[in-house]
Input
Amino acid sequence: MRVCVAGVTGWTGSAVAEAIRAAEDLELVAGVSRSDAASYSSVAEALDAVSADVLVDYTHAAVVKQNVLAALERGVAVVVGSSGLTAADYDEIDARARSAGVGVIAAGNFSVSAALLLRFAREAARHFESWELIDYASATKPDAPSGTARELAEALGRARLDVPLEETLGERAARGASIAGTQVHSLRLPGFSVSTEVVFAGAGERLTLRQDAGDSAAPYVAGTLLAVRAVEARVGLTRGLDRLLD
Output
């Protein structure tokens, strides 16, 4: 499979590119980076210059959507590891992918531990009515919530609030942002990597599930390659690495 990596010089993108080079069944045919003269400057430029089966995107919230749509316009499947896409964006991407007859696999986090967090949280939500999310990241992370937290909130859906948001006294914003009916609280502080915590609560009990990212891109590589190998067999959007673990 011929793969183009957008964000090829980035923290995760460079590790994914190296793994693609080492894989016998994959070929790195192009890289996209605005900071590297040896790479293409845009996804459109790269995909017009080379023949690729799959685009892997580890770029930035500001450009990920246009990168995905550029690939779909050219009939290229996409694996999305970048955050910043909304539910409406994903609906549009799904429609475009189905029209093009190609697949898109997107995950807020391609590590197995994050995929299991999503799976276990879905199961827990079947037995609790109330939960909220806490989204931790470094002070320099510009997007809030993280892709992992957004994906989890949208998967869980609406939680019960004993005090409706419109009846909150004081500063209503202190209750966090409502993402698909789940309250999400994003902390951006020095010393944090990306962590996602969901707290479920019932009468007299609590259940806390938490996933912590380390200081290496290694956990994301295997999941990304799993998605690359799976995406050509799919049409339309698949959200979440957990969907590939069965």
About this structure: The first strand starts at residue 2 and ends at 6. The mean pLDDT is 94.
